[in-house]
TrEMBL record, chains A, B:
This protein's UniProt keywords: NAD, Oxidoreductase
Stored SUPFAM superfamilies: 6-phosphogluconate dehydrogenase C-terminal domain-like, NAD(P)-binding Rossmann-fold domains
Domain 3-hydroxyisobutyrate dehydrogenase-like NAD-binding: 181-301
Protein name, entry field: 3-hydroxyisobutyrate dehydrogenase
Protein family: Belongs to the HIBADH-related family.
Active site residues according to the UniProt entry: 187
Length: 315, 315
């Protein structure tokens, strides 16, 4: 298993007028990724149907297009960072519908869409002659901006090696297998753990408060020991702030990702009681109007119940 | 909040014929703790009703007694490392029943018994004139042996300071508060997280296998990132071994501790869906005959279900 990291660099690379990368989906995480690729010397066209996303991309000096149709025919790499499997499917349908010059294209799917979706869409693209890699990423917006994402890369090893410079602009490439879907499967396990660990941290800190302890002191006491987790350290402090705390990743993302984990597990008949419990908390947080808030605010689902019980007891 | 660590040392301290520490409960974790205190210069009498536990203690050079009655009247420190709240209650009843010279005794409750139990028993001991500290520990047998436990100490600050040399023989003293029960409360939160994180690791690695991935490779890929936890790193590798893997802490311990967390939460009306899901897995592991196995073997509850479903599908 390779753990190489190609350090991103800032150089002026002479390029022609045509893009060598079409980057589809320049949202919160896509835009800093596209910017890293530009810093790495690539000529980018950023594709996004949303005018505000395109405007932000143009502010950072990227060329933009509202649809992939505007850049076809195209020879080079298509990086896909759309939000959902449905958007990926629609993108592929659009590209294939105009008989794109796919033998000259390498598609790198970096969205988290689940193993089934990437297998289906990779199959359609491959049948049209394109090369495809399945490379979901983890690390969030902060690490996307610094080129320190972790990339779970699967697909043909020769194609991965051909794209190693490009991938290396974004972070550390971990080659997880040769089959399309393996990258997404690793991401499923990763999101399983992340989904649970955030809620576990919220449940623990809410319990600490109910026990009459200072949650901040408890966080300090337990986070460095056997109860510690990356999420407890990262999200814990934000759980102790208020609902308007800076958003690093939304509740909505974990509604999507915990559903994606549950769907993948259901198809395999895998038992996932802890993930189910976590998933329910994200859903409840949306019901409380927290969808666009930082995912750490899932702790409010515990506080609301504590308050409701307390109110009921007082009557 | 103090984070001092008094380093344990090996010196010959001249002492008289009487013990200065009565150590009650020299089981898997109690014996190495008592041995650390002896290395720290204390004269120990190890009390344990189980002949095999006493035999092991004698093998390490400790004096032993089958009941605390054999060492009463006694002036000094009583360290309590029994397994359950019921055993603590019985011990206190026994000691109080003979009108022990409690004004000369300091009791340090280090068992994990929950905040209510320690408050009740500390109340009885204090009424008889004893000084009491609530000091549950975390770190397991391995760290007990090296004097690297973490001690969540609560109680009168002067008494904690008086016992700092003794406590320092066992590990790092974290003073969590002045009220009896605060140490146990912090331990409740710690065990809440530990209970969930072990099962989360098992569920994730079982899911990885169902996804057709190599769970060992996935462990390597996800444990250093946002999905990481202390338990995933520590228990994960043992989950990938077989049922006879070396026992560091048993399933039985987490049945006890997850029940203790649930009881404390229930009394407060605190919502703990993730802990409930984890608790159920430990209970199921006992039903599978795994009570004395390493707690990492909770993963077998997932494997059994996968096998059962697979068998049903083949019929």
């Amino acid at each position: 298993m390779s753990t190489d990291k190609t350090v991103a660099y800032e150089v002026a690379v002479p390029v022609g007028g045509a893009p060598d990368v079409v980057f589809v989906g320049v949202g919160a995480i896509g835009l800093p990724m596209a910017t890293r690729l530009k810093l790495g010397g690539h000529r980018i066209t950023a594709v996004d149907p949303f005018p505000t996303a395109r405007a932000k991309a143009e502010d950072t000096g990227l060329s933009t297009a509202a649809s992939i149709l505007e850049v076809l025919p195209f020879s080079g790499v298509v990086v896909v960072m759309v939000a959902t499997a449905a958007q990926l499917s629609e993108l592929v349908t659009t590209a294939l519908g105009v008989g794109a010059v796919l033998p000259d294209q390498t598609w790198i799917v970096m969205s988290t869409v689940g193993p089934d979706a990437v297998r289906i869409e990779a199959g359609r693209l491959s049948a049209a002659g394109a090369r495809v890699l399945d490379v979901p990423v983890t690390g969030g917006v902060a690490r996307a901006s610094t080129g320190e994402l972790t990339l779970f890369a699967s697909g043909d090893r020769d194609v991965i090696e051909e794209e190693r410079q490009l991938l290396g602009c974004l972070g550390t490439v971990r080659v997880v297998g040769t089959a399309i879907g393996e990258g997404q499967s690793v991401k499923v396990v990763n999101q399983h753990l992340c989904s649970i660990h955030i809620v576990a941290a919220a449940e623990a800190l809410a319990l600490a408060a109910r026990l009459g302890l200072d949650p901040g002191a408890v966080l300090d006491l337990v986070s460095s020991g056997a109860g510690g987790s990356w999420m407890l350290n990262d999200r814990g402090p934000r759980m102790l702030e208020d609902t308007d705390v800076t958003v690093t990743s939304t509740i909505g993302i974990f509604v999507k990702d915990s559903n994606l984990v549950a769907t993948a597990a259901d198809q395999l008949g895998a038992d996932i009681p802890l993930l189910r419990a976590a998933q329910e908390r994200y859903t409840r947080a949306v019901e409380l109007g927290l969808e666009r808030r930082d995912d750490s605010r899932v702790i409010e689902t515990y506080q609301v119940e504590a308050t409701a019980r307390s109110d009921a007891g007082e009557r």
